[in-house]
Amino acid sequence: MQALPWYQDTDGECAVFEAAHRARLPVLLKGPTGAGKSRLVEHMAARLERPLITVACHDDTSAVDLVGRFVLEGGETRWVDGPVTRAAREGAVLYLDELAEARSDVMVVIHPLADHRRQVFIERRNEVVEAAPGFMLVVSFNPGYQRGLKELKPSTRQRFVAIDFEYPKPELEQAILQREAGVGRDEARKLVALANRVRGLDELGLAEVPSTRLLVSAAKLMNVGVPARQACRVGVVRPLTDDPEVRGALDDLVAMVF
Ligand code: ADP
Predict the structure, then answer these.
(1) Which protein residue has the closest C-alpha to ligand 1 atom 18?
(2) How far does the centroid of ligand 1 lie from the alpha carbon of residue 7, in Å?
């Protein structure tokens, strides 16, 4: 059996996820990138002993991609289930990452699956697939990203139980860095201090502030022997900005903390 992917609960989200599964309700994970959304889903799917099917949605993701299509094989047409139909049949946890990115026809598929019907309607075959027991729909959404351009409609959002993701409290984020990257307490503490300084600097005009994921990357570099300042520059600062002035200001901050 595969080991349970480790997840640090930060605000009771594991219990909410488990309750939603028991109550057969879909879950919406809201929050910035790198905040632990996917890891929570991996952890909970393993804990609930359900297979996990993940789809990374992008602006070409269509209803057909999700539900399935007829393919031509040696002159014959054969139906192939898409990931949503497969997940419904198998009673899997279905994770649609960044659902707001997908084409709008996808919502027509999501709605009957996200409410009490728990059904996939396969228009091309005039078939209704009832989701098997254990099936759970989970979607993620980054409210800050491209604000105003990609939103989820209220009619979609209101079908979900929603869990907010903020960056974890310092002691929990430190614990994540120690466990994920194997760095010591002092390095973890300094990385989190650096991140929280940057997170508080609105005047830098960063599109996104450093995520837990970036801190894990820097910590991993430190753990394999990259000097702390360099690890922060290439692991945290460079991925965040291309602006030479902002980069300079962040590099100075790194030098103050380490
Ligand atoms: P998201 O799906 O929100 O973009 P991920 O779940 O991929 O983010 O998280 C990025 C990385 O950050 C993970 O691979 C893991 O190393 C770390 N991480 C973030 N939050 C947690 C957490 N609460 N518990 C364990 N690891 C975490």
Answers:
(1) 36
(2) 8
CB of 181 closer than 8 Å to CB of 236: no
- Map residue 209 onto helix, strand or coil: coil
33 C-beta closer than 6 A to ligand 1? yes
Q: What is the pLDDT of residues 10-31, one digit of tens each?
A: 999 999 999 999 999 999 999 9
Cα torsion angle, 202, 207, 213, 214, sign: negative
- Taking the centre of ligand 1 as the mean of its atom positions, its distance from the CA of residue 105, in whole angstroms, is 30
Phi, psi of 100 (to 5 degrees): -65, -20
- The rounded Å distance from CA 8 to ligand 1 centre is 9
The strand pairing partners of 58, in sequence order, are: none
Give the pLDDT of residue 150. 75
167-191: per-residue pLDDT in tens?
999 999 999 999 999 999 999 999 9
CB neighbours of 84 closer than 8 A, spacing ≥ 6? 55, 66, 67, 94, 109, 113, 120
pLDDT band at 254 (very low <50, low <70, confident <90, very high): very high
Taking only the tens place, the pLDDT of each residue in 121-137 is 999 999 999 999 999 99
Report the CATH fold assignment for 13-164: Rossmann fold (3.40.50)
- Alpha-carbon distance of 42 to 95, in angstroms, equals 9
Q: Of how many residues is the chain composed?
A: 258
Q: Where are the domains of the chain?
A: 13-164, 170-257
